[in-house]
Here is the input.
Amino acid sequence: MQIKVLIELKEIFLIGILLFGVPSSYATSFAIIHLDTIGSGIREGTNVTFSGTLTTPDGTTPLPNRTIFIEDSTTYPRPNIILALTTTDSDGKFLTFWKAVPKDNGQQFHFYAKFLGGKIFGYTKSETYESTIELSNQSSTEVVPSKTIPMWFKDASKLWHDVKIRNWDYAYGVQNLIDDGVVKSNDTSDSMSDIPSWFRGNAGWLSDGKISDYEFVNALEYLLNNQPQKIT
Here is the structure.
């Protein structure tokens, strides 16, 4: 009887591991991301350089081939704005550029770099740098057409099409477009899991200029609102 009980307990323990994962000693650790200093008083139209490193928690080992988002922290209820996207190289370093434009409300930018994390190394956020974009021409006004896709998303579409960034990273970008009103979704649940991998073809056409922003957004909206599927 005791042997049978022990066997049953062992089976329960194994099932528990399968259902709930490995013990806490294997839990995700937070990576470290550093964003190099960004100057203040940036002129409108100039290229701002975003560079830095992503390493293990102890700072000794670089983390290559990870997606890095460059964002601007905004005040609730507006979503934080993604300005650029890039990946780390073999040394864990990243480098990308952003053409400076002023905020529509005239406020300062609060630049930071973000790594969404994964199974081994978790979410991390860099230092934040404040900067004001100085107007190059006070009389100039820029009107952003509806359904205009930012350049960073076209870069992300190219990387996702070439399987150089994760589904999760690309879906995070799609969610940002939804939050910012560029893409309309009737789904009140997490839309970050509603893009199937076969949609990579559309992403590639967008990045190559073979379809317009309007056509891509319409296709994406139809997919999100009528054919929800999990990313595979």
Observations:
- Residues 204 and 210 are 8 Å apart (CA to CA).
- The longest strand covers residues 47-55.
- The mean pLDDT is 81.
- The chain has two domains: 29-134, 151-226.
